[in-house]
From TrEMBL:
It comes from Acinetobacter tianfuensis. It holds the Pfam family Sigma70_r4_2. Residues 47-95 form the RNA polymerase sigma-70 region domain. Its EC number is 2.7.7.6. Keywords: Nucleotidyltransferase, Sigma factor, Transcription, Transcription regulation, Transferase. One of its GO terms (molecular function) is DNA binding. Residues 136-185 form the RNA polymerase sigma factor 70 region 4 type domain. Belongs to the sigma-70 factor family. ECF subfamily. It is an enzyme of class 2 (transferase). This is RNA polymerase sigma factor. GO terms for biological process: DNA-templated transcription initiation. InterPro entries: RNA_pol_sigma-70-like (IPR039425), RNA_pol_sigma-70_dom (IPR014284), RNA_pol_sigma70_r2 (IPR007627), RNA_pol_sigma70_r4_t2 (IPR013249), RNA_pol_sigma_r2 (IPR013325), RNA_pol_sigma_r3/r4-like (IPR013324), WH-like_DNA-bd_sf (IPR036388).
Length: 204
């Protein structure tokens, strides 16, 4: 009788691959809609570009992080997506400015932070802006915000990331996230106040 301890068989690589692909399919089903809304707003409604950015982010996620848990995928995916968006924006800025490849292209004002901004909560955007405002009206108002304000608001209010995680995804300081988020809330309330007077023009 063989008394030697039995060695557990390593999981078959094809099974692991199939499991990862199944998880990715479910993950894509869950986040694609919101990610596309974010990218369409950030690219001024260029739906083809938005779809390409989202698809490229999914491919990179699966290629580099297939072994990570689904929960870990959320910040990783949005970090990859943010990087691809910023690369696209830099290319567009250089295309619009001849010889700009000789100098650094500045896209945002992350270095400017409003001091003493309260770290506001992450409300459900529909509760925050009242049932009197439709999803399309919210989306249109978000699209009018500067890109970094769009990102800060959607990552916090829609995806529910905290300030620290949002800062990591956006590759900026927590102070910048607070500033962008604070201004986004002010901008949305001002843009939608004609639809619901109770919103007012301030987040205070």
């Amino acid at each position: 009788m063989d008394l030697a301890p039995k060695q557990s068989k390593p999981a078959d690589s094809s099974v692991l691959k199939s499991t990862a692909e199944s998880r990715l399919k479910n993950f894509m089903h869950e986040v694609t809609g919101r990610a596309l809304v974010m990218m369409e707003s950030a690219t001024h409604n260029q739906q083809g570009i938005a779809m390409d950015l989202v698809q490229e982010a999914f491919i990179s996620l699966h290629k580099s992080y297939a072994d990570k848990s689904t929960e870990e995928w959320y910040p990783l995916f949005y970090t990859i997506l943010n990087n691809k968006l910023q690369d696209w924006r830099r290319k567009e800025a250089r295309r619009a400015q001849p010889f700009s490849f000789f100098r650094k292209v500045s896209l945002d004002d992350d270095e400017f932070e409003v001091q003493d901004v309260v770290d506001e909560s992450t409300p459900n955007p529909f509760e925050f802006l009242s049932q009197a405002v439709t999803a399309d009206e919210i989306q249109d108002a978000i699209a009018q915000l500067p890109v970094r304000q769009q990102q800060a608001f959607t990552l916090r209010a829609w995806e529910g990331f905290d300030t620290q995680t949002t800062a990591q995804i956006m590759n900026c300081t927590e102070g910048s996230v607070k500033t962008h988020y604070h201004r986004a809330i002010q901008g949305l309330r001002a843009a939608l106040s004609h639809l619901n007077p109770n919103l007012g023009g301030s987040s205070k």
